[in-house]
Amino acid sequence: EGEYEEGEITQEEYGTKKSTSLNRVTLGTFHSICAKILRWHGPHLSTLPSLSSSDTIMDGNFVIIDQSDQLKLIKEILTSLGIDLSKEKKMGGRGDANLRPITILNAVSQLKADERIATLFPNQKPDENTRKLSKKLLQIASQILPLYRTSLYTQNTLDFDDLIFFTTELLATSSQIRLNLQKRWNHVLVDEFQDTSATQLELVKLWTDESLFVVGDANQSIYSWRGANVGSMEDFVREFEGVESVFLMENYRSTSNIISAAQKIISASKSSSLKEEARKDASMKPMRGSGPTPRVLACSDAKAEASFVVKTVQEMTDNGDLTPQSTVAILYRTNAQSRAIEEACVSENLRYVIKGSAGTFYSRAEVKDCLCFLKVLYNGRDRNAFVRAVKTPSRGIGEVALNEFFAYYEALDSKVTLLDALISLADEVTDDGDDIESGSERKLTSSSVVSPQDFMSKRAINRFIPFAIQMKKIKHQSYVQTVSGLLTTIMTDLDLRSHFDSISKTSDEFAERLSNAMELCAAAERYADDGPCLVHPSMVSDKSDDGTTNEISVSESPLGNFLDDVSLLVDADGAQNNDDEGTGRLVAQLMTIHASKGMEFDAVFLIGNEEGTFPTQRALVEGDGSVELEEERRLCYVAMTRAKTNLVLTWRREVMTFFGQSFKVKDTDRSRFLDTLVAKKGKKTKKMIKTKKTKKTNLSRDSQDLKSDLTLEQRRHQLQSKMT
Description:
Layout: H1 30-40, H2 49-52, E1 63-64, H3 67-81, H4 85-91, H5 101-120, H6 128-131, H7 135-153, E2 157-158, H8 160-173, H9 175-184, E3 187-190, H10 198-207, E4 211-214, H11 232-239, E5 250-251, H12 256-267, H13 272-281, E6 285-286, E7 295-299, H14 302-319, E8 328-332, H15 338-347, E9 351-354, H16 365-378, H17 383-390, H18 399-411, H19 418-427, H20 458-477, H21 483-493, H22 496-502, H23 507-524, H24 558-577, E10 587-592, E11 601-606, H25 617-622, H26 627-640, E12 643-652, E13 654-659, E14 662-667, H27 672-675, E15 690-693, H28 696-699, H29 712-723
Parallel strand pairs: 1-2, 3-4, 5-6, 7-12, 7-15, 8-10, 8-11, 9-10, 11-12
Antiparallel strand pairs: 13-14
C-alpha cells in the first residue's frame, strides 16, 4: 500500500495464512491415510468384529511393526512350534524349496487377506495367488497365523496389512463413520491405479460414493509379485456404474517410431485385456514427430554387447546426437548383467552411475564373499580378506577365537602368512582331518616350535580345524585349476550356495545373489587359457633355459592378474564417479527395468533380449498367456517407453551358463518380444525395425581387454592414461 520511489526496498509477506480449499486436501499412500483414519477412530477398534471376540485391547495409540520385526516374530513362533525350515525343505517337495521366514510371512499375509475379503465381501473371488502356494507352506502359515495375531494385538501393534484390513472393516461395519468420512472427502483421486490390489479397490469404494477419479495405465502394471491386481482398471469400470473414461492420447515423451514399436509388443499378447489396451493405444498421437527408427542388434556374447553399447554412446556423443546434458539409460532385466557393461564403461572411459540398491557389481556382498577367498590364497597376509573368509559362511568363530588365532600367528616366524598359520592347524591334526565329522575328540601334536595350544583354547582350535582342512585342499587345487574352476570349487566345497540362501530374504534375492556369483565365475573364464591360478614354487627356477635370470616369480600368475584387474576396475570406477560433476561429460545411468519405472531418457539401451533372460526362464516355464509371461511383456513395454528419442535393443547369440561344476557356452534364441519387431526375411516394409548383424570376430573383442601380457604397473599406467 502507498507510493514508493523506484528502487526503494519494501517488505513482502510470505506464509500468511489464508483460508483456501487446499487446507482440506489429504495426501498420502493407502497405508498412511488408513493409519490416520484408525487413529481418529481409535476407541472403535476394539469393537470391530474381528477383534471383539478376543481379549485384546486396541486403541488409537497402536504401533506399526515393520518387516524386520515381523520376520523376527515369525522366527520366534517357528522356534516355539519346533519347526525347522531347513529340515522341512529337505523333506518337502519341489515347491517347498522356497521355505523361508519371508515366504511364510507373505503366506500369512495372503491368508489374512483371503479371510477378511471372504468375511466382508462374500461374492468376491479368492485371490489366485493363494492357490500357487505349496501345501507345506500353507500348512505352516496356518499354524503361525493365530499365534502371530495374538502376539501383535496383545501389544497394541498392527502390521501394514492390518492398516488396510481394519480400515476397510471399520468403514464397512460403521455407516456413521463411513458417512462422516465421505462428507470430509467429497472427492477422491487415486494415482497409479494399475498397481492397486483387490482389497484396496474395496477400500476406495467405501471412501466415496460421489466423486472418484483414478489414473492408470494397464500396460504398465508390473508389480503382481507385490500383490497388485493386473485387471484393476477393468475391475474399476465393472464395479462402478456410469464410469466416464478419458483417454490421454497425446504423447509428449516418445517419438512415433518408439510408440509404434512398444504397441507391437502389447498387441502380440495372448491376454484379451492387453489386446484391448493395444487397440486403444493404436490411436495415440505422438507429438514429437517420427524420430530415429529403433534398432535391434544381435551380438555374439555379453562382452560384445557391452562393447557395442558403450561405443555407440560415445559415437552418438561425437556425432552430436547426444550432448553432455543428455540422459542415457542402459537397462537390464537382472542386476548380474551390469558386470560386462561396467567393465566396458571403465575400459572406454565412459562415466556411469548405478541406480538402485544393488550398487556396482564388485561392491555386492556375494561378489566380495567369493573374492575374499581368492585374495587369501594369493596373498596370505591380507587380514581383511582373511577375517571375511573366516566368517563366510558363519562357522561359530567369534572375536575371541579370532584374537586367539591372531596371537598364535604373531608368535610365528615373520615369513609365515595367515594362510600358513591356518593350514598349520590342519597339519597338526593326527588323523589328517579325515574323521573331523565323527565327533571323536581331536588331538593336536606339539611338534612345531610354537604350539597353537599355547595361544588358543581347545574350543577355538576345534572351530578353526574344519576350515583349515578345507583351505588346505583348496590351496592344493589352486596349483592345478584355472581361476574360474577354483571359484567353482570354493563355492562347492565351502557351500557358499547355502550361505547366499541364508542371507537372502526371498527366493528372488537368492537367485540374484547366485547369479552375481556365477557372473563372477564367467568373468574369470577369460583367464582360462593362462593355466592354473598359481604357479607352484617348485616350478619356478632362477635361471631360464638360455642361462639368463628368470624374471617370472610366483606372484606372476593368472590369479594375480585377475585380482589386479578387478582392483583397477574398482579404483577406476571410484575415480570417475568421484570426478567433478561440472566437467561437462555425459553420464550413463545403469539400472534394472523395474528401477526405471516413471523415468525418461533421451536414449535407452535395453540389453539381454534373449529367451531365458528377457523373458525370464521362470516365465517361459509358466507358458503362453501366464501371469508371469504377460507381466514380462508389460515390463518390456515399460522399458521401451522410457526412451524419448533413441531406442536400441540388443541380444546375445551366446550366453555363459553354469552346468554342474563348469561353465558352458549356450546358444540362445532371440526374445519373442523382438520377434514381433523385426521384419521377417523376404518381406519389405517401409516401417521395418532395422536389424544390424556384425561378424562375431568383430563384436567378440573389446578394444581394451582386461586380460593382457602386460605387467601390473604397465596396465595401471595404461588405464590411468586412458582415464586422463
